[in-house]
């Protein structure tokens, strides 16, 4: 068994497909046995580290589940490939399974999208970043263990190009659910309740702040865990000016909400008020259009009845 394992490992290190199939001939269950180990450097991890594209693709096709396994360092094969700057290999793996973009590594909960935001603004990184967004749009919502999105991470690591790609894609996205996605991502807060506006201000990134304050879904006066708004974190006079002109206030000037009052307001809402809104959300566009046509006809009939009541001449 050890000899077969060594042969498989050697095949992965050299990218030798002949040795791979020799090992499989000797033990048809060899890849299943590797898959059964909880945390292990699989042949796919080894090939990913070495950049053996064809070998990695062959393993992916023979045993797709190996692409999701974490090794003892908590890394999946795609994380290993990214760490070793094998961008073409990453591209090929994602082509086979786009869900790999959302796989989290063990220690920090970083996805491949997060890693790209940490790794600089090289042409290869930015090209992959855009490809990830197109292949798996919802990956922009994923957070690490500190509840940071890719935008938080790009700002923390001062990767303005990555931030611009992420933000630009988010506000220009026209797929179904785009508005909800934009609202959701822009309202995300990390473990310290910091929005991306807090982070960009804290990092002194005026370019990012200028972009964010123009966005209608950005919460300008959100307080973090220290009861600070972005304006409270601004140090330069220019940053303070940009935020103030956009309508950002200091935390001290914003009245804190009273949870008892909020609870009372929620309980007193007329349950009929959300009917039309929920109807819009749950209907297809075709059914919604048909419903609106019917409503117009009903309203028209009521209006005409009011003008000419029964019995009137």
From TrEMBL:
Location, primary (coarse class): membrane
Q: Give membrane topology per the record.
A: Peripheral membrane protein
What SMART domains does the record point to?
ANK
Q: Which PROSITE patterns match?
A: ANK_REP_REGION, ANK_REPEAT
Which Gene3D superfamilies does the annotation name?
Ankyrin repeat-containing domain
Claim: Membrane is one of the keywords in the record = yes
Q: What does the UniProt keyword field contain? A: ANK repeat, Membrane, Transmembrane, Transmembrane helix
**Ranges for the ANK repeats:** 73-105
For this protein, the record's InterPro entries field holds: Ankyrin_rpt, Ankyrin_rpt-contain_sf
Task: Indicate the transmembrane segments per the record.
Answer: 290-307
Compartments (UniProt record): Cell membrane
Could you tell me what this protein is called? Answer: Uncharacterized protein
């Amino acid at each position: 068994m050890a000899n077969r394992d060594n042969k498989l490992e050697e095949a992965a290190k050299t990218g030798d497909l002949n040795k791979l199939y020799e090992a499989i001939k000797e033990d048809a269950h060899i890849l299943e046995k590797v898959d059964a180990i909880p945390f292990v450097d699989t042949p796919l991890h080894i090939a990913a580290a070495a950049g053996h594209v064809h070998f990695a693709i062959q393993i992916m096709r023979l045993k797709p589940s190996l692409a999701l396994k974490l090794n003892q360092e908590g890394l999946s094969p795609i994380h290993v490939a990214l760490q070793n700057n094998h961008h073409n290999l990453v591209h090929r793996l994602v082509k086979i399974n786009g869900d790999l973009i959302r796989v989290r590594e063990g220690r920090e909960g970083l996805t491949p999208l997060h890693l790209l935001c940490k790794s600089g603004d090289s042409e290869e990184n930015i090209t992959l970043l855009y490809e990830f967004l197109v292949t798996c749009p919802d990956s922009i919502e994923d957070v690490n263990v500190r509840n940071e999105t890719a935008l938080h991470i790009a700002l923390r690591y001062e990767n303005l190009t990555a931030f611009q790609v992420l933000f630009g894609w988010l506000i220009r996205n026209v797929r179904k659910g785009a508005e909800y996605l934009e609202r959701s991502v822009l309202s995300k807060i990390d473990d310290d309740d910091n929005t991306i506006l807090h982070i960009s201000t804290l990092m002194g990134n005026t370019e990012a702040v200028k972009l964010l304050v123009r966005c209608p879904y950005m919460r300008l006066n959100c307080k973090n865990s220290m009861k600070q708004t972005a304006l409270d974190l601004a140090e330069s006079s220019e940053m303070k000016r940009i935020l103030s002109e956009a309508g950002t206030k200091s935390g001290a000037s914003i009245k804190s909400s009273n949870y008892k009052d909020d609870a009372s307001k929620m309980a007193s809402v007329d349950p009929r008020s959300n009917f039309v809104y929920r109807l819009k959300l749950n209907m297809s566009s075709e059914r919604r259009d048909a419903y609106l046509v019917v409503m117009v006809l009903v309203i028209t009939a009521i209006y005409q009845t009011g003008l000419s009541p029964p019995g009137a001449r």
